[in-house]
What we know:
By secondary structure, the protein is mostly helical.
Amino acid sequence: MVFQDCICFRLGKAVRKVSRAYREEIASYGLTHGQFFMMVAIMEEEGLLPSELADKTAQDRSTTTGLLDRLEKDGWIERRPDKKDRRSLRIFLAPEARKHREPVLKLFEETNRTYLNRFTRQEWDQMQSFLNRLEQ
Length: 136
């Protein structure tokens, strides 16, 4: 086996390439790659618990907490008490962040579509099957 055939190398190379497509535009919002995807997850479904966001974004809880702390500090999100369990906090967009909701989601969707359009529907289904197998 040669280095170029290493699955970790190939997956990492592909991730870096796709990440570059977002980098400049998300930087204009003052977001890191991780923060950007956390914001997309929150914009898609507000009111989740941090643990639910960790599961949704496949992050460990400590990483999620760090991302949420920074997003709150930067005015992107608010933590609000859960109405049923006041010990829990749910995550919502801060009022200022609502102004960026549409352009951020548009950036996410357009960039994602650019890469998905390189596959046929059948190829993408197969790719997802392969990725699911790697995640097991």
